[in-house]
Write a structure and sequence with these properties.
about 400 residues; mainly alpha; two-stranded antiparallel ribbon; two-stranded antiparallel sheet; transmembrane
């Protein structure tokens, strides 16, 4: 019985970490490259994120006896790729710190529920869809560059999505790497075995970094990551103290930010793997799956240097396409949620279009302008309704 429990929880933790890593590591790597970094800096970020996620997953799960799996923010990484190119690396770190501070503040004050209630989830979903839509489009743009590779990835995605949806991105990753190898698109001439090292980056605070990175990253992390993470826990009849969890993740995030820990949060999809009945028939024992997930996070962090060296050798078309495939489901769900209520549809569409645009006025990027435009649309609609009603 004990052996079976150890195996089942261990496998669940491993699967959750592998799927989470395969689904979004390409985004983090591309974020670092866009900010002027290289594979070594990317490995430092993965080292920091892996240790932060691993330690918090283990500590929170053991303390609360609940399967609390912490993950990096996939939509957050997508946001940074789309909107952080006009900022320096130091400014980006300042944005990470400010976002983490806001999350910590939500935790210690209990403001989270109040903040979320003030922002219609349809607008938050539309904003997220606007951030991510270009990643989905770019999958098909990459077919111009490497048609055989990307078309094969697309067909793999379609087939595996029907047969084994939880492992879709993992299969796409493996097949794409094998094919890229056969097509001589991978070069490992500079491959060297080295452990990851921490690289400290001093933050450079200014209003542009706060409004362009900090606030949008905070909104995306809370609305698109922490909120679904809480919903998954409650759906499995777990009721952990949300504010305490946010306080811990926010504090750890602040400590990790100068080393590339851009955002950590409650996992949702991968966390559900640790809560399934197949893990353990006793729900009170399933937290061991999240603990084992934390251990695998730490192992992933230690070997991040090797992993990023491999990623740096992959063709650009593969990395961009993999990121797009990983976000297909999130884009679909975000669009559905943004249009879930007729009275909100026009404001949601405007939020979506402005966010997806390249608008950048007065140092404020399109993400924040999208929310402003959607909110103004709602304000105008409600104001004129009151006037006509009276």
């Amino acid at each position: 019985m004990l052996v079976n429990r150890i195996l089942s929880t261990g496998v669940a933790g491993l699967v959750a970490v592998v799927i989470g890593f395969a689904s979004s590591v390409a985004l983090i790597y591309q974020t670092v490259i866009n900010l002027g970094g290289d594979a070594n800096l990317a490995s430092s970020w993965i080292l920091t994120l892996g240790l932060a996620m691993g330690i918090t997953s283990i500590a929170l799960s053991l303390y609360f006896k609940v399967p609390i799996l912490i993950a990096w923010s996939t939509p957050g990484a997508a946001l940074l790729i789309a909107n952080a190119q006009s900022f320096s690396l130091n400014e980006a770190i300042a944005g990470f710190l400010f976002s983490a501070f806001l999350i910590f503040l939500c935790g210690i004050t209990g403001w989270f529920e109040k903040l979320i209630s003030k922002l219609p989830f349809q607008l938050a979903s539309a904003m997220l869809a606007g951030i991510l839509v270009n990643f989905g489009i770019d999958v098909f743009n990459q077919m111009n560059e490497e048609p055989l590779l990307v078309i094969t990835m697309f067909l793999t995605y379609l087939i595996v999505k029907q047969l084994a949806p939880k492992f879709t991105i993992l299969f796409v990753l493996v097949i794409s790497i094998l094919l890229a190898w056969q097509l001589n698109l991978i070069t490992l001439s500079e491959f060297s075995w080295q452990l990851s090292e921490f690289r400290y980056i001093s933050p450079e605070f200014n209003l542009g970094a706060i409004f362009g990175i900090g606030i949008p990253l905070f909104i995306v992390t809370m609305a698109a990551q922490n909120l679904p993470g809480i919903a998954v826990l409650k759906a499995h009849n777990y009721n952990p103290p949300v504010s305490s969890i946010l306080s811990v993740t926010g504090l750890v995030n602040m400590l990790a930010a100068p080393f590339g820990g851009y955002a950590i949060n409650l996992a949702a999809i991968t966390a559900a793997i640790c809560m399934a009945e197949s893990v353990d028939k006793d729900p009170k024992q399933r937290y061991w799956a999240a603990v084992s997930g934390g251990v695998f996070y730490i192992l992933m962090a230690i070997f991040a240097g090797y992993l990023m060296t491999i990623f740096s050798s992959l063709p650009t078309a593969l990395i961009y396409s993999l990121a797009g495939f990983a976000l297909f489901a999130t884009i679909t769900n975000s669009i559905k949620q943004s249009l879930s209520e007729n009275t909100m549809s026009e404001a949601s569409i405007i939020t979506f279009l402005v966010t997806a645009s390249s608008l950048n006025l007065w140092g404020i990027n399109s993400v924040l302008w999208g929310l402003i435009a959607g909110s103004l649309t709602l304000l105008a609609q409600n104001s004129f309704k009151k006037v006509t009603a009276s």
